[in-house]
Structures are given as structure tokens and as C-alpha cells.
Amino acid sequence: MYKKKECVVMLLAGGQGSRLYALTTKTAKPSVSFGGKYRIIDFPLSNCTNSGLDTVGVLTQYQPLYLNDYIGTGLPWDLDRTFGGVKILPPYQGQNGSDWYKGTANAIWQNMEFINRYDAEYVLILSGDHIYKMDYAKMLDFHKKKGADCTIAVIDVPKEEASRFGIMSANEDGSIFKFTEKPKNPDSTLASMGIYIFNKNKLQSYLEADSKDPASANDFGKNIIPAMLAAKERMFAYPFEGYWKDVGTISSLWEANMDLLGEKPTLSLSDESWRIYSRQEASAPQYIGANATVVNSTLTAGCEIYGSVKNSVLGAGVKVEAGAVVEDSVLMENVVIKAGAVVKYAILDSGVCIGAGATVGEDRATANEVAVVGADVAVPAGKVIEAGAMISKL
Amino acid sequence: MTTAGLIFSNIHDQSIPEMTRQRTMASIPFGCRYRLVDFALSNMVNSNITNVGIITHYNYRSLLDHIGTGKDWDLARRSGGIKLLPPYVTAYENNIAGRLYESRLEAIVSAGNFVNRCNADYIVLSDCDVILNIDLNEVVKEHIRTGAYVTIVTKRLNTANHHFDGNVGVVSIEEDGSIADIASYKPQDDTGEVDISTNIVVMSRTDLQAVIAESVARGYKDFWKDIVAKQIPNKRVRAYRFDGWYAYISSLESYFAVSMQLLGDDARHNLFAQPNRQIYTKLRNSAPVKYTDNAVVKNSLVADGCVIEGTVENSILFRDVHVGRGTVVRNSILLQDSYVGANVNLNCVVTDKNVIIKDDRNLSGHETMPFFIEKGTMV
Q: Cα(B353)–Cα(B373) distance, rounded to whole angstroms?
């Protein structure tokens, strides 16, 4: 039984995130750990539930096992619903053949039936690779008030960074007159956040036309948005202010984690009115040993600390043995740092074990790049891993 | 062979009146993020006992809230799962069917419907103040092997290191494993090592059904005297010796002492680090713990959601506790949502939930008499 839903959310979670390299060999980017007990996808999912949007299709493709498992019934985000809720939408075989998702637009096109089952008037399209807190209900109100066909959330970025984004030029009333994907000489600083609201019927007709064009890359930024602009549809830029970070690269992922630290952090997760939910396991409480030092850091359940931890973010079940030092680093779940090992300016993926006396990375002041060790790698005792190294296998 | 579980949630409420004014013994917060009932429940779930009744009597609102649908223990099931068994109140005169049950046996009788319908071969009865991680399958297997009428899980403890009181049953175990006597603990016959009953008991369902029928007919009230003791001469009351870490709560003083034992690796690992036998609890979506630049934390357990700006030593902090700048918390237990301001000194203090301690306060108890601050108090 399907109840009508005014707005259905489609969350694009199929990307590999190849720039995260060692962190995404076994899992898709949206399920990369963040902030100790979260995954990147917790942010859009929590935003949906906090915005009162309870029908979410998650489009998966690359390495979906972990992501499927993680989302499960959707219970942690309160999206385990009888009417609506979260549904995983993988590529499938149909009567007219089967295909992988060829692009973001094609992924939605292949799942129009999901949207139509709920008789939706609006479709909100999200991507699973940004860290931010946003009330989509306000954006939907804006979309309705403007009588828009398509609304694109935008954020003001520094001029020198603008060429990394899709840049909009908008009139005073917010209507968009120009859109350029990654311009060399940007004439605006309004960057697309990859968050779109479409009127369902408009979206459907553009996707259908796009699907018939063999030359198309089937991509929202490259094809659908330019086509709608060219046809002079009503398109508006919805200005967003607040924390927003694309964590598509190692350095931005590291930075976003560090944004959680400090007395007045740039990104606070303790805001009761806008909680970020995550799937948790029932691990024991964290234990800080009698000779441990833990300063300016954030730790979660299951950690056991006997050494020194400074300016770092630790995931569930991390063990830091006596005499070990962890500084300026991100340790994902179940990482073990053996006695006397030193980890500085590094990201260690889940299950990594750093042997006794080993060294990973170097002082942030002198290191050029973050050192990265991929999931389940065991670094032997005494081994030295240089600053900026990218290790997925030893 | 299937086994069902029955948990008594109110049975020792009077042991720790400070904390049971508004809650059952079962819902006393313990060990940073748990409630006492989590241990009995998790032991059952980890032993594939997925049909569990919890007998409640009064004050059970906090327990209802904690258990919810039972999902966090994987007990939200179509078939079986968790059932709360409150007193049966009818709409007619004498509406509490005579009076509220008081004894263990009366509580079992009140759960007669659950026992009759649970469709299990064996039933494990457990109190809610037992803190241990045990594989109950082994107990049931032993029960079947020996053909016992009742198998009681016992634990050998040294009286010098433990707080005992009259509620504890001391059992004398024969060489063949049968129990010769069960008596209340008396300090005068202190003998160093004693075997005590954990009050975790296995019986077959049919025997338990017969107990219920007979108790109603004859007006029996005491499970140990009227039921168990009668089988002692037949050698069918047997002990299952548990050799892991075990504690029970008999007073605020023992609550304090047992909690502090969790800071030692032995208790903590024995309880929480058993492979495939985790302790489950209601999950709360708190952010990870934040330690600021001024944080100094030694030998402490800290639950998610805490913000630590001061010094914490030898203490247990439940979820979402705030420790302000310049504050020193030593040998204390701060229950969830306690807020401790700046420049406060706490030593041997137990704060119940939602306590606020304003800046510059100095509060101290002693380990034999911790200073207890009631739920929601502002100091």
C-alpha cells in the first residue's frame, strides 16, 4: 500500500569516490566513516528525517554490500516506516534489458516508478558525499513560493575555489540565468551543492528526453540543468548558509573531521535540535587508563586508551596501548595502536593495526600531506610509514 | 529444546531505596550506559532465549521507556520477543484480583499465563540485579543432563571482599553437585568463602506449571521454602557453579563499590569483552565524547555525549554529562545528563539523573557512604 507523498527524496550513493582511494577500495564513499561514530551518508539521511521527509530512495552501485547493511531497515534514522521509509535502489534487469546507472540522471530515470508509486509532486535529489546540516523543508517552501520548476541549493564559496564547483549566476530574485560546470574563470561565487528540487512532471519529461539522446552523459550538472536553462524553465538558486563540506578528497575529509574539535567547533554534533543519527553497535563504554592523556579530541564507545591522544578523532573500539602517541589523526573503528607506536597527521581506516614501535606520518608542521592506511592493513612492528603515504596493502 | 526467560524487575527494590523511588531495580542505571536489566536480558538473548517475560509490579514507567519494543536486544519479534507483565487489574470490584503480589512465588503465579503459553521446554528465572555475563545454554544443558528439578546458578565469593546482607541465599553444595541447604546469610557464621545463590534458576516448564497450580491450591507464598526446599531430600536441587565475574547490588554502598570494580580490567573485560556475548542496551544517539584542551582524564569510564573540560579521575560518567572547567571529579558516579559547572570539587559523590551542580561547589562523601544527590536536584 502506498500513501501519497508530496516529496520523495532520491539519494545518489553509487559513486566510488576514487579520490579517497585507499578508503574506498572496499566500500562506497557514502559509507566512509566520519567523526568517530558516523558515516558520510548519516548527514543527508538525518537531514531528511529532521526535515520531515520520510520517503527516501538510496541509489547504490559501487561496492554496495556495506552500504546496504548499514542502511538496513532505516531504523536508526527513524526511516523504518510502514508508509514510505528508506529503500535501497540498485541497478536492475528489466524487460528491455539491463544496465548499470550510466550517470546521475540515468539513475533517477531508471527509478521513476519508485517516485510515481508515491504520486509525488516534488523530487529532492541529494548526493551522499557532503557533510552539512540543512533543513530541506525550508528549501521546499522556497521552491513552492517561487513557483519554480527546479531549485538548486547554492553556497557562497571563496573566488579562488570556485573553479572546483558548478557555478550559478543568478538575478536578484534568485532566478538562475547561467550555469557553468567547473569554470576556468568563474564570474560568480555561488556553487551548486548538488541538492536539487524538481517538479516531478518537469523532471520526468527532461529525463525522458535525455534518455533518448545517445550523446548525453546522463548527468544532472552536464545535461539536465543546461537543457532546462536553455528551455527557459523557472530555475532558482536557494542560498544556504552554514557548514558544508565536500569530503571527496583525503585532505578535505581530514579537515572536516578536525572541524569537530575545539571548544567552539565549526561543526557541532551535539545540537539536540538537529541530531545526526547513526547505526551503532552495543559496545562497552570507553575507558581511559590511569596513565593516559586525552586532550582536544573526540572518542566514542568501546575505545580503550592507555597512551596519549591529542587533536584526534577516534572511532568505536579503538585501542591505544601504553606509550603510544596519536596526534592530529583520524582513526576509524577498531584501529589498534600497539605500545610505543607513533601516529601523526594520518587517517587510519577501520581495522588497521599499527605494530609496536611503528611510525606513521610525521608532525603536521613538517608533513606535506596526510598519511593514509587502508582498511585492515597490519603495519608490522617498527615499520616506518612516511608522511603523505597512501597504503592500501602491505 | 526451547527455553523461555522470566525476569523479576521489582524483586529487590527495597535494597537501594535512594534510587528506586521512581524506578524499578531493573531500571537502575549502571556501568556508564546500561540499566541493570540489560545484563539479565542480554544473557538470555545471547543464549538464544528470545521469548522473555518481565514481571513488573510498580514504578515501571522508566522500565517501559527503556525496553520500548525490545528492538535493541533483538527482541522485537512476531513470535516470542519481549513481554512486560504488569499486575492484572480488572474493571470490576476487588480489581487487583485480591491484592498485589509480594513474594517471588506470588509473582510467578501472576505470570501463569505467560508460562502456560510460552511453548518452551525450559524456563530460566532471573532477578534483575545480577551483574554477570553467562552462557545460560550451559546451565540448561547441565539441568537436562542431571535431570534436576531446579538448577540454581551459584557463585563462590569471599565474604571479606563483598557486601552481603540478609537477602542473600547461602547454599551448601554436596560433592555430587546437589544442594543440601539454602539459608539466609548471617554475618555470625562468616566462613570466608561461601557459595551464594545468584537467583538464576532453571526449571522445566511443566514443573513450573505444576508449581503455579499447587501454589494457588495450597496458598504457598515462598518459592525457596515451599517449593525448592521440598526437593532437597530427593537430591534434585542442584548447583551450577559460575566462575566468571559476578556482582549484585544490595545497597547504595554496594552499588558504589561494584561500579568502581568496573574500572579494573578484570571486571570490565569479563563483563563486556566476551566474544559473541555483548551486553545490549537502549541506544541513544549521543555525539561522541569531547575532551577539550584542558581535559585531564585518568582511570575512568566515559559514555558518549559527555563534554569534559576539567579533571576526571577514578570515576564513571554516564551519557551526556558535562564537566566544567577547573572542576575536579574524583571517585564519583555521575548519572546521565548530570551537569557539573566550573571549579567544582566532587569526591565520592553519586548524582542521579539530571542533577545540576553549580560553579564553585565542594561536595564529598566517603567510599563507605557515598554522597547521593537525588534525581533532578540543583546544588
A: 9
pLDDT at A18 over 90: no
Beta strands in B95-234 (DSSP E): 122-127, 130-132, 150-158, 169-173, 179-184, 193-204
CA distance B158 to B166: 16
Q: What are phi and psi of B158, to 5 degrees?
A: -90, 125
Closest by CA position to A110, among listed A122, A124, A96, A120: A96
Q: What is the C-alpha end-to-end distance of chain A, expressed in Å?
A: 52
Task: Compute CA B211 distance to the chain's CA centroid, rounded to the nearest angstrom.
Answer: 25
Between CA A198 and CA A204, with CA A203 as vertex, the angle to 5 degrees is 145
Which of A35, A289, A296 lies closest to B291 in CB terms?
A296
Contact (Cβ atoms closer than 8 angstroms) between residue A43 and residue A245: no
pLDDT per position as a tens digit, B229-247: 999 999 999 999 999 999 9
Asked if residues B56 and B9 have their Cβ atoms less than 8 Å apart, the reply is: yes
Q: Assess B83–A contact: CB distance below 8 Å, yes or no.
A: no
Position with higher pLDDT, A270 vs B89: A270
Q: Bridge-partner residues for A9, per DSSP?
A: A56, A124
Residue ranges for chain B with pLDDT beneath 50? none
pLDDT at A38: 96
CB contact under 8 A, B288 and A277: no
pLDDT per position as a tens digit, B17-62: 888 888 888 899 999 999 999 999 999 999 999 999 999 887 888 8
Residue-wise pLDDT for A69-119, tens only, equals: 999 999 999 999 989 999 999 888 877 777 788 889 999 999 999 999 999
> What is the predicted ipTM?
0.89
Nearest to B111 by CA among B226, B10, B259, B249: B10
- Which helix (H) or strand (E) segment holds residue B85: the answer is strand B81-85
A266 touches chain B (CB under 8 A): no
Instruction: Please report the pLDDT score of residue B96 as a whole number.
Output: 55
Closest Cα in chain B to A268: B287
Q: What are the structural domains of chain B?
A: 3-272 (3.90.550.10), 290-373 (2.160.10.10)
Position A228, amino acid:
M
CA angle B196, B199, B201 (to 5 degrees): 120
Say whether B289 and A280 touch across the interface (CB within 8 A). Answer: no
**Cell 521513476, residue?**
A112
A1 touches chain B (CB under 8 A): no
Give the residue among B277, B212, B204 at the shortest CA–CA distance from B1.
B204
Q: If you count them, how many residues does chain A have?
A: 394
Give the chain B residue whose CA is nearest to the CA of A260.
Answer: B290
Distance CA B35, CA B26 (A): 7
Q: For residue B45, give the C-alpha cell.
A: 538473548
